[in-house]
Amino acid sequence: MSPFLARLEEVKSPRIGLGCMNLSHGYGNPLPEGEALHALEAAFDMGYRHFDTATLYGATANEQLLGKALAGKRDRLLLASKGGMAIDPGLGKKVIDGRPDTLRRQCEASLGRLRTDHLDIYYLHRLDPQVPIEESVGSLGRLVEEGKIRSIGLSEVSAATLRRASAEHPIAAVQSEYSLWTRNPEIALMDACREAAIPLVAFSPLGRGFLAGAVSDCADLAENDMRRQMPRFSTEHLPHNLQQLDALRGEAKALGVSTAQLALAWLTAKGNDILPIPGSRSVPHMRENLAAETLQLDAACVARLDAMMTHDRIAGGRYTEAQQSEVDTETFAGGSPSMPTTS
């Protein structure tokens, strides 16, 4: 068993974990510290045991939050962070750097912020095209030997990169965007993970709020909300994409659940090796998401959901061209269409 899965079992974690980025990064201004700490403490109390953060989030502020909120609870949870992508204070912008010395320095700094002597899993946040994956993973392997991290993860990598990395050191989990409207892992990555018995941690499983019905107009998003730059949320494409939610709403209504719960249940129905980590700033939404753990879908429902929001039905790419250049994941032939070929 993957050491990642073994740890989840040890702490009796639900299949659904908590992505903590939203509290500090990406979707407008950070939540005030007091509110963020309350949300994290409430998440633990309601049953979350898998907490996911990164050096990048809030330029280290998110790790500091978790360090404060989870103090005294460390032995009862799985703590995940990521390195290799961070805000450079001198440049004031994001930098991808997978060099061994950088990964060691960032990991050790993360341990301090998170108030722990080890991480259960530490992900390479992005593949650095200037550094062979074997070098980055080899340096993380040395951190495993020193006990600073218990296992190695990769984020936003292709099947080919995963296989190269696995030849250097065992990989405990792979993190990738996966949801009803982002099916890229189904191209090749899921097969590669299953060949090596590596679980897939699905980030943005609610389509950055889209599948929860949280975004109806791009103009309503904060000026510094990252979704304003994402093609699928643009004024050109969002109206069309919103039409694709109608069928999901119908299924959810028939089951007496929210669209968010149905989207999460679809992921967990894909296999015990698929682990969603939805993020939220709202304690009620955290509770709603976690409740999807008990929702069992029959094969016919899963098949209907499979047929919804396939890549040819969604308008716009998940990333801009510049953002896409930063990830190593497979894309569908021809990329995401500017407008879908079916409706």
Describe the structure.
Residues 15-308 form the NADP-dependent oxidoreductase domain. One of its GO terms (cellular component) is cytoplasm. The protein is α/β, with parallel strands linked by helices and 343 residues long. The protein has a domain at 3-216 and 269-293: NADP-dependent oxidoreductase domain (TIM Barrel). The protein is built from 13 helices and ten strands. α2 (33-46) packs across α3, α4 crosses α5 and α6 runs parallel beside α7. The longest helix is centred in the first third of the chain and has 15 residues, at 100-114. The chain is globular, with a radius of gyration of 19 Å.
How would you summarize the topology of this molecule?
Elements: H1 3-10, E1 18-19, H2 33-46, E2 50-52, H3 61-69, E3 78-83, E4 85-88, E5 93-96, H4 100-114, E6 121-124, H5 133-145, E7 152-155, H6 159-168, E8 173-177, H7 189-195, E9 200-203, H8 238-243, H9 245-255, H10 259-269, E10 274-276, H11 283-291, H12 299-306, H13 321-324
Parallel strand pairs: 1-2, 2-3, 3-6, 6-7, 7-8, 8-9, 9-10
Antiparallel strand pairs: 4-5
